[in-house]
């Protein structure tokens, strides 16, 4: 054989072998997160490919860039739709709790922020800050639960980022999300839509999430089988909008129902008059709140929202929510002119008390 041809064959064989080696998937060899996984090299690539891409894999992530490109037409139709965008961070402790974990919470929370604005959620970006030493088995559980939550809500995890901090500089994992949704042109929601006589409804029992997280910490000598209410509410919102004249909605997260109602009252200058006997709280949750001296009105929820609807469609609103799966949905109050910019609770004894904004934080790091 011509030495030159043999040289060319050997060179081709070497190039082919190099190509095969370089095209192999990166291998995740460690059991825990190390600083190398945040350094941008092979370890980082292995983390992204073997944990995130393996769980989330879709056409947008497959673009492989620092951002995903989507066509405007895939989001907005030609008839005047608007875009809603939301961002949030999640630092809950513990990161896994009865009824959910920080990953599921991050997806559901972002979907819900968009939904109560009247938007149909479409895309979510996810950024992780991982603490050195986090076990990959724990991270995988979180990532897979995020994928399941996204699929259930009908949204796509389109892009993301990962950083690693030294052990002791974080608390296992923090997650930041951003979401994009589309508001159909016929939907007009806002404080300026609320009128005297409107009814206030909730989609279900309050205070479950905050108390579930508190119990899961194990800091208190209290055991109670309370589970977080974390769920995506976009399906419930669509059912509500279809059945009723909806003025305004808000998911009652940090600060609880009391804070949401105060935000509404302050923004409109009207009064939210709530009936204590009609506000749904599960017996176990109420008992835990009573033992800790915490008012359920101020405890965070992650799958329950409040809405103001017209008086004429209030019963239809509740019926639609219950048919869609929100069995605890009910009317809890009404909008009145006085006392201006206030929230008033009518007690079971017929008296009233003012419900102010939350002061301090009785349940730190619950979302």
TrEMBL record:
InterPro entries: HypE, PurM-like_C_dom, PurM-like_C_sf, PurM-like_N, PurM-like_N_sf
Domain PurM-like C-terminal: 195-344
Coiled-coil features, chain-numbered ranges: none
UniProt-listed GO biological process terms: protein maturation
Domain PurM-like N-terminal: 76-183
One matching Pfam family: AIRS_C
Similarity comment: Belongs to the HypE family.
Protein name: Hydrogenase maturation protein, carbamoyl dehydratase HypE
Species whose genome carries this gene: Corynebacterium epidermidicanis
């Amino acid at each position: 054989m011509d030495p030159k041809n043999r040289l060319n064959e050997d060179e081709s064989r070497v190039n082919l072998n190099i190509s095969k080696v370089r095209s192999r998937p990166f291998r995740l060899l460690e059991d825990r997160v190390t600083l190398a996984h945040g350094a941008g090299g092979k370890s980082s690539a292995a983390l992204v490919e073997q944990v995130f891409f393996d769980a989330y894999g879709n056409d947008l992530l497959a673009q492989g860039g620092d951002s995903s490109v989507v066509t405007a037409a895939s989001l907005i139709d030609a008839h005047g739709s608007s875009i809603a965008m939301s961002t949030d961070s999640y630092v809950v402790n513990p990161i896994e709790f009865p009824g959910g974990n920080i990953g599921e919470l991050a997806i559901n929370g972002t979907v819900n922020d968009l939904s109560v604005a009247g938007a149909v959620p479409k895309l979510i970006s996810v950024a992780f800050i991982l603490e050195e030493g986090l076990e990959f088995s724990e991270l995988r559980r979180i990532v897979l639960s995020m994928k399941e939550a996204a699929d259930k809500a009908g949204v796509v995890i389109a892009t993301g980022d990962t950083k690693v901090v030294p052990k002791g500089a974080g608390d296992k994992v923090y997650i930041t999300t951003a979401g994009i949704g589309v508001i159909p042109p016929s939907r007009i929601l806002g404080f300026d839509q609320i009128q005297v006589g409107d009814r206030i409804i909730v989609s279900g029992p309050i205070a479950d999430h905050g108390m579930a997280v508190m119990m899961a910490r194990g800091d208190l000598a209290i055991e109670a089988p309370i589970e977080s209410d974390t769920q995506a509410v976009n399906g419930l919102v669509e059912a509500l909008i279809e059945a009723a004249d909806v003025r305004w909605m808000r998911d009652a997260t940090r600060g609880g129902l009391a804070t949401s109602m105060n935000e509404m009252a302050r923004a409109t200058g009207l009064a939210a008059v709530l009936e204590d006997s009609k506000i749904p709280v599960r017996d176990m949750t109420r008992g835990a709140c009573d033992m800790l001296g915490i008012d359920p009105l101020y405890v965070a929820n992650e799958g329950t929202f409040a809405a103001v609807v017209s008086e004429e469609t209030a019963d239809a609103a509740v019926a639609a929510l219950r048919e869609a799966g929100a069995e605890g949905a009910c009317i809890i109050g009404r909008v009145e002119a006085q006392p201006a910019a206030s929230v008033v609770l009518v007690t079971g004894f017929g008296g009233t008390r003012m419900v102010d904004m939350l002061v301090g934080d009785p349940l730190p790091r619950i979302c």
